[in-house]
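Hi support team,

I submitted a single chain yesterday and got back a structure, but I'm not sure I'm reading the token output correctly. Could someone confirm the output below corresponds to the sequence I sent? I've pasted both exactly as they appear in my results page.

Thanks,
R.
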Amino acid sequence: MHMHRNPSFVIMSAGLAGCLAACGGDDAQGGNENEVITTVTLTFAPEGGGENVTAAFDDPDGNGGESPTIDPIDLADGTTYAMTITFVNDLADPPEDITEEVSDESDQHMIFYTGTAVDGPASEQPGAPLTHTYGDEDVNGLPIGLENTIVATAGTGEMTVTLRHMPPVNDTPVKTADLPQQVSDEGVGSLPGSTDAQVDFAVTVE
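Hi R., thanks for writing in. Yes, this is the structure output for that exact sequence:
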């Protein structure tokens, strides 16, 4: 079970865990208080064209209602994908696109892709079915994680997607270039800030 700071809620479903909260008004730590994210969607666009693959966490009635659904990620062996991610609060009227806030405050946010299915900057898993590289940068040249490249090879495992909010402390930035390596070595819990969203996806590449 994942442990998070100030989560909006924690979900356990079929062995997959999700903790979803997004940024809102200012809190006492100088950052933002949490609000609900109901939907996290990954979109995989194959290089050279073809049909997109999507996988989503969806909890339309929020915490305490119906159990959420979490789609598996099913990709094709030997294919390179442009992967994007979106975060939405469908309980707002109209629905609120949290992705825009992450983009607007990209120097305070980073998305980490980890787990047994991922070999990448935050997850050293040689031979894993997904090789991840970041495809975007904030104003300081540091990764964000809204845009990515995934190279898929045959195999199975789990990919954990974590949106971390890391506002400055005493006007000093805490989002730094070494954070992906820190996650690989010590885990997400070692990071500054707090987790806005975390979802586990089952991965199959064949």
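A quick pointer for reading it: Residues 141 and 177 are 9 Å apart (CA to CA). Let us know if anything else looks off.

Best,
Support desk
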